[in-house]
Amino acid sequence: MNYASIDYSEKRSLPISIPDYHVRERKHERYVVFNIYMAGRLLCSRRYREFAALHMALKKEFIGFNFPKLPGKWPFQLSEQQLDARRRALELYLEKTCAVRVINESDAMQEFLYGRLEDDGDQGLSAVDLKIVLPDREFLTVTVPKAAIAKDVYEVICNKIGLDNDTAKYFYLFEEVEYNFERKLQPHEHPHALYVANYSTANRTCLSIRRWLFNLTRTSLSDQALTWIFWQTIDEVNRGHIFAGERLYQLKTLQDASRKHEYLKLAQELNGYGDIVFPHCPCDSRKEGHILAAVGDNSFKLHAAKEDGTLESQVVEFLWKNITRWEIDEEGMAFCFQYTRSDNRPPRWLKVFTPYVSI
Q1: What is the dihedral of CA 92, 95, 97, 103, to 10 degrees?
Q2: CA distances for 16 relative to 12, 293, 299, angstroms
Q3: Is the pTM of this model over 0.85?
Q4: CA distance 82 to 56
Q5: pLDDT of 117 higher than 50
């Protein structure tokens, strides 16, 4: 690479900080690690020599850049005052280097911030805090190992709020990936990785608990489950996924948890209740415009929409009993299904082109 041709002028301010540090003991060694946060979310903990190694790697790669000074080595044990001064200096170093886009996006910096380095050791076991939005819009903070997978994080959440096993199976951990759309996490995904990857979002967290249940009329649901379904139903009415029409005012008068049974009884009569609605996308049945796919207990619906997602009046509903085959085209990002037609016409295939084919 010709270092003279590297553009250092493109800069952006990143909310990176080192607010604190802690002492780690491992393999008969005791040392200090500095906790690096992005927008208040812990990315990693690094010791001083890892900062020094990063500094050397960056200076070799970006010869033409005037790097800020890294705090010097000290052969003796540092006092708390000296450690805090080192913390502030390292924070300033990261602020200035990460502000330069080409440096921030370099392999060395990305590995330092997000990867496992040689000195990481038990870092996957180190505790991190995750903020989770509950269906009643309350925030819950749980402390889990950094490398914890989704099913273990969900178990910690259930234990912390005292959710019984029967209720827990009707809900799960979701990630907000688009406005008004959440993706259900797979059991072996790493929520902390998603949490820090979304540091630039305006929301306090991208993780939430939402229902994973389509038959909402079952009588065996606990009071806790009904309360959460009540709050999520309000959310779905506000999003326009449940079509309230002239009943909207009546629903609003019942928006109190003490009247959840009345609210849900009314909501059950409305079109869209219990459906999971996906973002608008193309479908090969429409030459122009998009569709919104909705998965419900009894059917799969395609709502006609404009290319910007504005709903149109046409809705095509496919009962599950009439869908005879389905396939997922991972490469083409499409959900394909075959359905039977009346009047002895042959079955037909449809393709829905969406990145959420395997949610």
Answers
A1: 160
A2: 12, 39, 47
A3: no
A4: 23
A5: no
